[in-house]
UniProtKB/TrEMBL annotation:
InterPro entries assigned: KH_dom-like_a/b, OsmC/Ohr_fam, OsmC/Ohrsf
Source species of the chain: Thermoflexus hugenholtzii JAD2
Record-given protein name: OsmC-like protein
């Protein structure tokens, strides 16, 4: 997500983009199995860049190595919270 934002001129470093992931585990045959992951992205951003950030959020998982690797085994959902900064 950060790389895709940066490629479009939206700063993601220095604490501007924070991701919080929560996993849901279930027991299957007495083995704990990770079934779902939900990622909440919080992005401090200029209001003029919000629409671009929403577009990036809409496609970023298709190009994320982690999502592509485990996406067929674990359900992954994401949400984007935009925090306006500046004028």
């Amino acid at each position: 997500m950060g790389g895709a934002l940066e490629a479009r001129g939206i700063p993601a470093g220095e604490g501007r983009l924070i991701a919080e992931a929560v996993g849901e585990v279930e027991k299957e045959d007495n083995v704990l199995v990770l079934r779902r992951i939900h990622v909440t992205y919080r992005l401090r951003i200029a209001p003029s860049q919000m629409e671009t950030a929403r577009r990036v959020h809409g496609f970023h998982a298709r190009y994320c190595p982690v999502a592509r690797t485990i996406g067929n085994c674990v359900a992954i959902t994401t949400e984007l919270e935009l925090i306006p900064e500046g004028p």
